[in-house]
Amino acid sequence: MIGGFGTAGQPMELIDALLDQGAKDLVIINNNAGNGETGLAALLGAGRVRKIVCSFPRQVDSQIFDGLYRSGKIELELVPQGNLAERIRAAGAGIGAFYTPTGYGTPLADGKETREINGRQYVLEYPLTADYALIKAERADRWGNLVYRKTARNFGPIMASAARVAVAQVREIVELGGIDPETVVTPGIFVKRVVQIDAAHGAKE
């Protein structure tokens, strides 16, 4: 899983580190399929991604994904945005599956179990989990409690809870007690690694 809504909240430096590390044949869960040639788009362009699960793969600057998809070099699982968020959240909450009306009667429901509930048709959806979640936050303490900055929050909190190992890129690490508990969005119990990145090198927030 890689956090971000477009480039907002995308952990660019963690993605760069993943590129340097050399992992390949990846299945990526993200809202988008990369913008321009940096971040997630660079990971796609390097041929490291086998499949992407997202809700918004096409946009004006998604040329890398477009080329890979048209040439059959990447798989796509298209998920409506609300379903994507709920499938990730369900994984973190320990929910085995859930019914949603979104997607019923469309190709997105092909092969999935459906059921009528109170006169309305629903599709059964399963949680999305991952071995790792790479996310971006504004501030952390060494316990991993996270505070986000505005829209950079987006998918970060639910991805942290849904992955086996969540790695958070942050601008600032403070001493224990340096974060008001009322402002903590992601409790440290969900975060396994915190990496401080100088703000001058950060991605768009």
Automatic annotation (TrEMBL):
Signal peptide: none
Enzyme Commission code(s) on record: 2.8.3.6
UniProt keyword terms in alphabetical order: Transferase
InterPro entries registered for this protein in UniProt: 3-oxoacid_CoA-transf_A, CoA_trans_fam_I, NagB/RpiA_transferase-like
Record's keyword annotation contains Zinc: no
A GO molecular-function annotation: 3-oxoadipate CoA-transferase activity
Protein name per UniProt: 3-oxoadipate CoA-transferase subunit A
Organism: Bordetella avium (strain 197N)
Gene that specifies this protein: catI
